[in-house]
């Protein structure tokens, strides 16, 4: 089976993890801050805060921005469930903004209209989380400006997008948002096995996220109530969690980050090859418009919705590990029980009915890619 995504592990990666295992620190040592600095440097941010997953990083990012009970949080229905779940975990009410059919990202016009209506009703969200679907940045200039106009905070879920660029800046530079979160799950661009990093230009938000990932505890006397009682002393200032990344994960990520540019370039080359090879088939290819360099986490083709299942099954039977990203979040039973229903976000639902993610990863050989193309060509004609 040619999978839809796969990690790339080199001898250097293995040596970096082994060195940590033989060192003094398995957690809370020097590798995590070095990895955080490497991610911040590569993405144009001042601060990076590592966590044991992107889900955890999104959760502490929401908490650091003050999201809580009685607040509203908005995201896109075309994302992994984690993006919406972190709002519910904070006690907030979650709602969605439909997508743009060309980019599969949150539609800025739909967001502007929904923000204006919410402002008129006196019920604005506290924060909005756009997602850079497939590695292509959402239209952050418009989304960020609309949110700023209404005093709404923004977290970019850039789980797919490390190494991407938008309007002249790396994704993560925080030009249009408060915090940006990257995932290092093995199918993503760069991996730490499990892991996430939140980057920000704001020192206060970085410090808050550092506390929240480690029980809400500080050892900084300047932040304490009253005087420190000695070198052992710490204080818990708020309710936090243990969301820490291990040293082994950080060492793997640090070693992988050296290849970030090469990974994104390779993914773009493979995407260009797919564009050329699939252009004459009855499938719609990913949109490439806008001033952005996609990190190309995913390559999604869209097919006739009445044949999507047959084409998907034919590809799986041919040994092609296709997948679907994503089932619209609002259609999950958990969210239907909170009042959502089919028809609520029609552009997202129409996209879902047609989408198939085909294999794309840095280690995909051109010969294997040609096999994928041949299988798609035969599946779309067979199914017809
Ligand atoms: C992978 C992913 C997440 C969750 O990342 P984890 O590191 O697995 O917690 C969140 N949002 C999106 C869009 C993702 O693709």
Task: Write structural notes for this entry.
It is a single chain. By secondary structure, this protein is of the alpha/beta class. The protein folds into two domains: 256 residues, Type I PLP-dependent aspartate aminotransferase-like (Major domain) (Aspartate Aminotransferase, domain 2, 3-Layer(aba) Sandwich), CATH 3.40.640; 124 residues, Alpha-Beta Complex (Aspartate Aminotransferase, domain 1), CATH 3.90.1150.10. It has 13 helices and 14 strands. The protein has a seven-stranded mixed sheet, sandwiched between helices. Strands 7-6-12 form a three-stranded antiparallel sheet, with no helix packed on it. Strands 10-11 form a two-stranded antiparallel sheet. It is globular, with a radius of gyration of 21 Å. The mean pLDDT is 97. Pyridoxal-5'-phosphate (PLP) binds next to helix 3 and helix 4. Keywords: Aminotransferase, Pyridoxal phosphate, Transferase. Pfam families: DegT_DnrJ_EryC1. It comes from Mesobaculum littorinae. One of its GO terms (molecular function) is transaminase activity.
């Amino acid at each position: 089976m040619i999978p839809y995504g796969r990690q790339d592990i080199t001898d250097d990666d293995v040596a970096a993890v082994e060195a940590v295992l033989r060192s003094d620190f398995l957690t809370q040592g020097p590798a995590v801050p070095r990895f955080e600095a490497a991610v911040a440097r590569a993405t144009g941010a001042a601060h990076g805060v590592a966590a044991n997953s992107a889900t955890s990083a999104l959760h502490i990012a929401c908490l650091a921005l003050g999201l809580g009970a009685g607040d509203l949080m908005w995201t896109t229905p075309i994302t992994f469930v984690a993006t919406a779940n972190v709002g519910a975990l904070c006690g907030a009410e979650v709602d969605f903004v439909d997508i743009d059919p060309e980019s599969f990202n949150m539609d800025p016009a739909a967001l502007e209209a929904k923000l204006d209506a919410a402002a008129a009703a006196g019920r604005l969200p506290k924060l909005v989380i756009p997602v850079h679907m497939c590695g292509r940045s959402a239209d952050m200039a418009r989304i960020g400006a609309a949110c700023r106009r209404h005093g709404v905070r923004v977290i970019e879920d850039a789980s797919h997008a490390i190494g991407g660029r938008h309007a002249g800046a790396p994704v993560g530079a925080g030009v249009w948002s408060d915090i940006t979160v990257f995932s290092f799950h093995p199918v993503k661009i760069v991996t730490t096995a499990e892991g996430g990093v939140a980057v920000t230009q704001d020192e206060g938000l970085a410090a808050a996220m550092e506390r929240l990932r480690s029980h809400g505890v500080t050892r900084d006397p300047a932040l304490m109530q009253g005087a420190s009682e000695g070198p052992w002393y710490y204080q818990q200032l708020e309710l936090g969690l243990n969301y820490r990344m291990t040293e082994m994960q950080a060492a793997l990520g640090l070693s992988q980050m050296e290849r970030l540019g090469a990974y994104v370039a390779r993914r773009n080359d493979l995407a260009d090859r797919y564009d050329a090879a699939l252009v004459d088939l009855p499938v719609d290819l990913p949109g490439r418009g806008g001033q952005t360099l996609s990190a190309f986490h995913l390559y999604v083709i869209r097919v006739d919705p009445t044949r999507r299942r047959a084409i998907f099954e034919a590809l799986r039977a041919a040994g092609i590990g296709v997948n679907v990203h994503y089932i619209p979040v609002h259609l999950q039973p958990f969210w239907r029980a909170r009042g959502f229903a089919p028809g609520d976000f029609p552009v997202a639902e129409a996209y879902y009915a047609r989408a198939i993610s085909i294999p794309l990863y840095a280690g995909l050989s051109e010969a294997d890619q040609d096999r994928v193309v041949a299988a798609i060509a035969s599946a779309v004609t067979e199914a017809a």
